[in-house]
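Bit of a strange request maybe. I'm writing a small parser for C-alpha cell strings and I need a real example to test against, not something I typed by hand. Could someone generate the C-alpha cells for this chain?
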Amino acid sequence: MSAAGEAPLVGGDFGLLSPVWAGSRAEAMTSDAALVDALVLGEAALICALAQAGIAPASTEALAAHLGQVPIDPRRLAVEAVAGGNPVIPLVQHLRESATAAFGHETANWIHHGATSQDILDTAMMLLATDVLAVVAEDLGAAADRLAELAVRYRGVPIVARTLGQQALPTTLGLRVAGWLTGTRDALHSIHALQPLPASLAGPVGTAHVYGADGPAVLDAFAGRLSLSAPTLSWHTRRGAVLGLANALVMVGAAGGKVAADVLVMSQTEIGEVRESSGGASSSMAHKSNPVRSLLIASAARQLPALAAVIGTSAVAEQERPAGAWHAEWQPLRTMLRLAGGVAALTRDLVDGLVFDEDALARNLELLRSALGEDETWTDAHLRAADVWVDRALEADQGKVDDHDLDGSLRRGPADPP
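Reply from user aminoacidic:
Good idea to test on real output. This should exercise your parser:
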C-alpha cells in the first residue's frame, strides 16, 4: 500500500458466494455506494438541523444541498478509512475540501460540526436498515397474505405429521400452513416494533458539548429531518437498538427458514408431497429439479443467528466510546440486512408457487393408518382437533393484516431530501 493509502483494486464482492441476496433489493440498498449516500445524507441533515436550531446561519442550507453533489468514490474512501479506522473521517475531509472551494473555509467548517464519526456512521446504518426493513415487510406481508389463502384452501386436507423425522399422527395441511403464517406474522411484528430506528448525535463523549443547552433541540431536528427517532441519551455504548434490529432479522430468517425446512422434507423424492413452482438444475444430473428457493432460504436462516452473536458480544462496550466493539458490528449487520432481505423475497416467491400433491399426501397418511390398523374414523377425530387451531390462527391473523404496510413508516426513498 502506498503512502497515499492506495491499493490495487483486485475485485469486489458481487455476491458470487451469496446467491440468497445477489441481485436483491436489499443488496442494492446496502451497497457501499448506498452507504456513502446515507453518510452524506446524515452530514447534510446535520447542517440543516444546526440552521434550524439557530446555531448555524440559515445560508448554510445551500451548503447542505451542495454535499449531495460532491463525487465520492466508495473504493477510495474504503482504502482511506484504514488510517483512521472508519470511513467518516476521509469522507468529511473530501466534503470540506469541496465546500471550501465552493463557499469558503468558514462555511465549510459547519460540515460535521459537533458530531463524531460514530454519530454519522450509526445514523447511516439506521437509514440503510430502515430502507431494507421496508422491503422485508413488503415481501413478508405478501407471503403472509398468500399463506392465509393456502391455510383456508387446505384446512380440510389430511396429512401425516412427523416428529423426530418419523411419521407420528394425522394433522392437516391447513394447520401446517397456519404455522408458517403465524411465524411470518411474528417476524413482521418484530419489525414493526423497531420503528422508527434512532438517529445518533451525541458528540465525542455523549455530551454534544459543542451545542451546549441546545443539544436536545439539534438532536430532535436532526432526527426529524431523517425520519428517525431522537433517543433520550447517547447510545454509543448502549446498543439496544442494534440488538433489537439483529433479533428482528433473525426472526425473519426463522420465519422463512421454517417454511423452507418443511418444504425440503416434503419435496424429497420418496415423499413427494410438494414441489416448488420451478426447480433448479444440477450440473451433473439432468433428471434433478432441486428446491433452490428453499435451500437458499435455509442457508441464510442458518447464518443469521451466528452473525447476531457478533452483534450481541459487541453490545458489551466500555465507558463512553468502545474500542473495537462498535467496529465489529458494521459488516455483520450489513450482511444480516442482506440475508434477511433475500429470505423475505425468496419466501414470498416460494409460497406463491408451491404446488401440493394431494395424492402423495393421502398415500403417505395411509402408510401410517395401515401400520396402526386404524380407519378413517380415527383420522377424522384428529382433523377436527386441527381445525380448531386453524380457526384460531386465521382469526389472529385478521388483526394483523395491515402489519406489512405499517402506514408507510418504513419508507425512505433514496431521493428524499435531508
